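User: Hey, my collaborator sent me this sequence without any context and asked if I could get a structure. I don't really work with proteins. Can you help?
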Amino acid sequence: MHYVGKDVVHRGAALLLDPSRLDESLAHSARKNVRKAQRAGFRIERGEGTPEELEALRALWYLPEDPNFPGELSEGDVLYLAHLEDELVGGMILVPVGRHYFLNNLLANEQGKAHQLQALLLWNSVHDLADSGQRYIDIGVSYRPNLQRFFQKWASFTYPVIFHPPEHGPRITQAPFQRLAHPPESTDDAAIDAALDAFVGGRPFTLLPSRGIALGVLTERGLSHTEVSTPGVASEGSAAPGVELMDLTQALPIAHGALLIGLKIPIAELWSEHGCYDFVKTEYLRKVLAAASSDWDSIVEARATVWESMNALFSQEDVEIEPRNAFPPTFAYRSDDASALHKRYRSFGVESYLDGGWLHLPCHQELNGAEIEYMYAIYRGHLNLCSAWESTQVRGRLTLDVG
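Assistant: No problem. I've predicted the 3D structure and written it out in structure-token form, which is a compact way to encode the shape of the chain:
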């Protein structure tokens, strides 16, 4: 049986290219290994990436016939060669990916391994590349316990990553509606009306079954409108505010509902002229919106917190992030790989869409930390170059911690 896996969020390791923070970020054992390698007298130099250099390194690789070992280097790739006296004993290949380097190969022969050459190669690269303009080295992630422990010892920080869609994965939608919930049981019509009046700033309003229905009504009445995510944003500073359309399913965890602000349509007209009056939904929406309006600031803050959490993750990479507004409907970023990423997100159960080169991801108050990390992990799996490598079917030796 050939089991692949890699369909669960794992933690990758990143090494900052900042020598001043090197000691504080490394595990004690990693620093100890560096000192041991320094005493061995290795000489580390930049290589030119000639076919002869790469073939010499390939001979030291754990699987010389590995089809994924580079036969040539591209512009920006970094090659280090390590010698002990006149013998080549190891090396390292780094490949630029956006704002970081990917650790493509790190290798040593038995003599190099015995004196912890790999540790010295990583240590040396941080000092050598400190002014490269790149932020960190992606040390990598492994599903072999012994190799993963090595990576984690060199982590200035870790990041979530996933490579394959789970068989039973989450469904993360653009709208905050996740599950059915009972509506508030309030029957105090006066209190509900007062809450709704305060929510819309005293302006007339109409509740409708959906955004689509609202657009149809506005078209039939020959009215223009502005779509908003929170009341009053479009009309601030306007002497004659127009009609605002708020899609309630994008703001609240409900399955239907739209709000027209600045326009009061009598029930009789909704029923006879537009044929869209729904008594049951209207009463439901009145209760839900009245209850939410009393805590609207918390909803706005929760959504902003989700956006900031996503921004803290994605801003580490080579993407342009759309600035946040007061009530962000999505988290949007521009990337050269936006189209491929859109397809990838869909395959992982994340509802995304493309608009003018911007990739829009869900960003609402119902998302939790695990779901936010999951969306970033999908992106990191795309960045990881080994996701495109050909499997060699070689598993190597498995080493587990005991006790």
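In plain terms: DSSP finds 14 helices and 15 strands in the chain. You can pass these tokens on to your collaborator as they are.
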